[in-house]
Structures are given as structure tokens and as C-alpha cells.
């Protein structure tokens, strides 16, 4: 098997960490990353013990800072040539209605979820163009398809923009051997989702009811995304877990069978 090196921004927990595990269990090499050195080192060490010390490296990155993203590429590619780069790092919706959100939080959400993706795509593309090969994936989220919901305006704006940016740049890219696409994980039980449930304007119980119909665990979604990424040969692609048909089927089935994906206990822990 041709082993690939995958760099994942924001992989110290949640979906990023889940994808790291999935790639590693399929025999590939992964660079995990996040803003906090101690956490990055601890996660890298844990994965090295679970898999193999030669297959995992950990690097500190803040995706909002272009220089930091440059450094991530340089350090990761010095370790092993990079085949796939996933712009996964993101912060969730605060759940507040937009007019209650302070300018500092607006900056943080836009810089992480949108500028971070743009920074990562730019750096990875420029280097992959020189390599003549590679693939870049950007993380979508609620709002990417234009849907709206109270409390999701700012987050949804960034995710809508991520889809537009990726689609537009995929058409503009001159190096056709570099692939660019988006990932749509649906609803996944992570710290990000749990925080947004706690603060949902309609209250947590209403969200828990919906999430028990539509949400999935990281261990279910991350291996699917990882497998599809490895199989993909096309650019301007969208890899989606929770398709319209799956949503329809889940709601239909919910009349006959209750799913319990999401527990009240989850709300007491904000990390997984
Ligand atoms: N969970 C869902 O239901 C869901 C649904 C659709 C889309 N998504 C998207 O999927 C991605 C991952 O979400 P998740 O639920 O796995 O979130 P999560 O559990 O909160 O993990 C987010 C990761 O991003 C890192 N991060 C945050 N800000 C960063 C920055 N400025 N620079 C570098 N790393 C940063 C975090 O590490 P540090 O804080 O230690 O830096 C962490 O490793 C996000 O883009 C999210 O919008 C999630």
C-alpha cells in the first residue's frame, strides 16, 4: 500500500482527532495540530503509543496567523512529504442571537473558520503546485448550503463562505494535479456541538431531540470521511456524510425507533 502523509489542522480533539485515528488505522502517516503545545504533544504521544511512533507527529499551529500556517507546512513536510492537507480547525457557534455578539467574538469566528481555511488552502496549494500533486479539503458546517437558524448567523456565514471559496478556487486553480474539495460531516457529538447545544436559544432539550435523530459519534463519521478522502480522484468535490436522503430516512425512522446518540451526560463533558 502507498502510505500517505495527511496534515490535519485542529486535530487535538473532535472530528480532526477522529480522522487522524482513522487514517492511522488504515496504515497512513498523520501530523496532528492545534494551538496548545502541551495538548498537541500529549495527543501525538497517545497516538504514537496506539499506532506507531514513526507514523505520528504533532505541531503547534494557529490557523488565524498566516506565518503559523506556513510553519506547519514547513515542519510537517520536512518530517515527511505532505500528500493531503485538511483545513478542519474551527470554532463553534456561541448560540447567541447575532446582535448580542461582541466584535471580538465576530473577529475570532471569522478568522478561525474562514481566514484559517483560506490561509491553509493558500499555503498547501502553493507547495502542492510545486510538488505537482496533492489534495486539500476544507470543513463545511451548518449554513454551507444556505440554511439559517436562530443563533447560527455568524457561524453559518463563515461556513457558507468556506463552500463558496472552495468551489470558486477549485475552478480557478491552474495546477490540475492538485485536488480541492469540501467535507460535510453532518452533526457530530464533539465539544463544539455540545457547547452549541447548551446555549441553543430554543433550549438544550429541543436540540437533544433533534440531535438524537440526526447526530452521530466521531467514531462513525470520521472513518467514512477518511475513506472517501483516500478514494477521491476528482477536484471540486463535496464529501458528505449526512445527505438529504439520510436526513429524510432518519426522520421517517424516528417515528418507529428511537436513536440514543446523544446523552444528557455528554453535556457535562465539553471535550471528547
Ligand atoms: N461537530 C459538528 O457537529 C460539526 C458539524 C459540521 C462541521 N463541523 C466542523 O468540523 C470542524 C471540527 O469540529 P469539531 O466538532 O471536531 O470541533 P472541536 O471538537 O471543538 O475541535 C476543534 C479543533 O480545532 C482546534 N482549533 C480551534 N481553533 C484553532 C486555531 N485558531 N488554530 C488551530 N487549531 C484550532 C482545536 O484545538 P485547540 O483549541 O487546542 O487549538 C481542536 O483541535 C470545525 O471546522 C467545525 O466547524 C463540526
What report would you give on this structure?
Helix 5 links the parallel strand 5 and strand 6. This protein has nine helices and seven strands, in the order βαβαβαβαβαβαααβα. It has a single domain, classed as NAD(P)-binding Rossmann-like Domain (Rossmann fold, 3-Layer(aba) Sandwich). The structure holds NADP nicotinamide-adenine-dinucleotide phosphate. NADP nicotinamide-adenine-dinucleotide phosphate (NAP) binds next to helix 1, helix 4 and helix 6.
Short descriptors:
7 strands, about 270 residues, binds NADP nicotinamide-adenine-dinucleotide phosphate, Rossmann fold
Q: What's the short version?
A:
The protein is of the alpha/beta class and 272 residues long. Helices cover 49% and strands 13% of the residues.
List the helices and strands and how they pair.
Layout lengths: L4 E4 L5 H12 L3 E6 L2 H14 L5 E5 L5 H14 L4 E4 L15 H29 L2 E6 L13 H20 L5 E7 L6 H8 L5 H11 L3 H14 L5 E4 L3 H11 L18
Parallel strand pairs: 1-2, 1-4, 2-3, 4-5, 5-6, 6-7
Helix pairs in contact: 1-8, 3-4, 4-5
Amino acid at each position: 500500500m502507498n502510505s500517505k502523509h495527511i496534515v490535519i489542522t485542529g486535530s487535538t480533539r473532535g472530528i480532526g482527532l477522529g480522522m487522524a485515528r482513522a487514517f492511522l488505522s488504515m496504515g497512513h502517516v498523520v501530523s496532528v495540530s492545534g494551538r496548545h503545545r502541551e495538548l498537541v504533544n500529549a495527543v501525538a504521544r497517545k497516538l504514537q503509543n496506539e499506532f506507531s511512533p514513526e507514523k505520528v507527529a504533532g505541531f503547534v499551529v494557529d490557523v488565524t496567523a498566516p506565518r503559523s500556517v506556513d510553519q506547519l507546512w514547513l515542519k510537517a513536510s520536512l518530517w515527511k512529504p505532505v500528500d493531503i492537507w485538511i483545513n478542519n480547525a474551527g470554532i463553534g457557534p456561541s448560540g447567541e442571537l447575532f446582535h448580542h455578539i461582541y466584535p471580538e467574538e465576530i473577529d475570532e469566528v471569522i478568522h478561525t473558520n474562514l481566514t484559517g481555511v483560506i490561509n491553509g488552502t493558500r499555503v498547501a496549494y502553493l507547495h502542492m503546485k510545486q510538488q505537482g500533486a496533492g489534495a486539500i479539503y476544507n470543513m463545511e458546517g451548518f449554513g454551507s448550503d444556505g440554511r439559517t437558524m436562530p443563533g447560527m448567523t455568524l457561524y453559518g456565514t463563515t461556513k457558507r463562505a468556506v463552500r463558496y471559496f472552495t468551489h470558486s478556487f477549485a475552478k480557478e486553480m491552474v495546477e490540475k494535479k492538485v485536488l480541492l474539495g469540501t467535507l460535510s460531516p453532518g452533526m457530530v457529538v464533539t465539544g463544539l456541538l455540545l457547547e452549541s447545544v447548551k446555549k441553543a436559544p430554543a433550549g438544550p432539550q429541543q436540540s437533544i431531540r433533534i440531535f438524537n435523530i440526526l447526530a452521530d459519534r466521531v467514531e462513525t463519521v470520521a472513518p467514512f470521511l477518511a475513506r472517501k478522502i483516500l478514494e477521491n480522484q476528482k477536484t471540486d468535490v463535496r464529501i458528505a456524510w449526512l445527505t438529504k436522503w439520510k436526513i429524510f430516512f432518519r426522520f421517517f425512522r424516528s417515528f418507529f425507533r428511537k436513536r440514543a446518540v446523544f446523552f444528557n451526560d455528554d453535556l457535562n463533558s465539553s471535550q471528547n
